[in-house]
Amino acid sequence: LQGDSRKLEDASAYLSLPWERNVPEPKLPSGSSFRVSGAAAALAPSSRDSFQISTVVCSTKLTQNVNLLGLLKWRSKPSLLSGNLQKLMNVDGGEVIKFLQDTLDALFSIMMEHSDTDVYDTLVFDALVFIVRLVADRKFQHFNTVLEAYIRQHFSATLAYK
To answer: Where is the Dedicator of cytokinesis TPR repeats region domain (predicted)?
Structure first.
């Protein structure tokens, strides 16, 4: 924008302007007049200056993968738990590894909270084997220390010791 710097100090002056440079001016009925008043009259889009903003959404706490997110937030929709446990095997290994501790926490919580039934035992066991295989893969072998640290320092599922 080109304009008087004193007028630019008032945010409402430039925030009310069109968001793109080539916005057609409103059509007015013949015989009517239109006058721009206030701070916006002193502002004009620059014909040679422009910029573009692009963003990438990234979270280090929650995944964008629907299948993994379904497992991590399993308590919100417990009716989908069996399907979410099965879908874990289809999640990209890199995504599971990024959320290794959260995934293991979810699996052991499922095991602890459903200890009175064996409905999820095989599914949780298969998911744990899947994760151990991932960590054993040469591609993710540097996460072996992360898994060992989890077992030594964070693991507390007493019913899972069996």
So the answer is: 78-162
DSSP string, 36-80: --GGGGGEE--SS-----------SSS-S-HHHHHHHTGGG-GGG
State residue 43 phi and psi, 5-degree precision. Answer: -110, 140
* Secondary structure letter of residue 85 according to DSSP: H
In tens, the pLDDT along 54-84 reads 887 766 667 778 889 899 999 999 899 999 9
Q: Which long-range contacts (CB under 8 A, 24 or more apart) does 110-114 make?
A: 110/74, 110/81, 110/85, 111/157, 111/159, 111/160, 112/157, 112/158, 112/159, 112/160
